[in-house]
């Protein structure tokens, strides 16, 4: 059963497809974002706000979110625990 994880501003991601949730501050993550943007595999769910989380999915797509990684991880954990 797949669950949709709320990542802010009425945007959702399939929880089962998430590989990792990262902060966008490091140079390697910034390069990964730039590469995904060039190849068209980026989904910007920030609505113009500052990117606080980078969600890497199974299909090599990257989702940018305005919520912190801690908030998204907490929501995922709450979904798992009921």
State the helicity in percent bands.
25-40%
Count of structural domains: 1
Helical/strand content category = alpha+beta
Tally of helical runs: 2
Secondary structure: number of strands? 6
The biggest sheet amounts to: 4 strands, mixed
Which quaternary structure do these chains form? single chain
Shape: globular
Give the percentage of residues in beta strands: 25-35%
Distance between the termini: 14 Å
Mean pLDDT: 96
The sequence of SSEs as H and E is EEEHEEEH
Query: Can you tell me the residue ranges where pLDDT is under 50 for at least 5 consecutive residues?
Result: none
Rg for CA atoms: 12 Å
Brief summary:
The chain is an alpha+beta fold and 82 residues long.
Your description of this structure?
The chain has one domain (4-81). With 82 residues, the chain is of the alpha+beta class. The mean pLDDT is 96. It is 32% helix and 32% strand. The longest helix is centred in the middle third of the chain and has 13 residues, at 27-39. It has helices at 27-39, 69-81; strands at residues 4-8, 11-14, 18-22, 42-44, 53-57, 62-65. It starts with a strand and ends with a helix. It is built from two helices and six strands, in the order E-E-E-H-E-E-E-H. The strands form two sheets. A four-stranded mixed β-sheet has the order 3-5-6-4. A two-stranded antiparallel sheet has the order 1-2.
């Amino acid at each position: 059963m797949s669950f949709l994880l709320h990542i802010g501003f009425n945007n959702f991601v399939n929880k089962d497809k998430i590989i990792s949730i990262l902060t966008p501050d490091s140079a390697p993550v910034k390069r990964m974002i730039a590469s995904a943007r060039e190849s068209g595999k980026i989904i910007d769910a920030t609505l113009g706000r500052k990117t606080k989380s980078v969600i890497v999915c199974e299909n090599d797509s990257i989702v940018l979110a305005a919520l912190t990684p801690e908030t998204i991880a907490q929501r995922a954990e709450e979904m798992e625990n009921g």
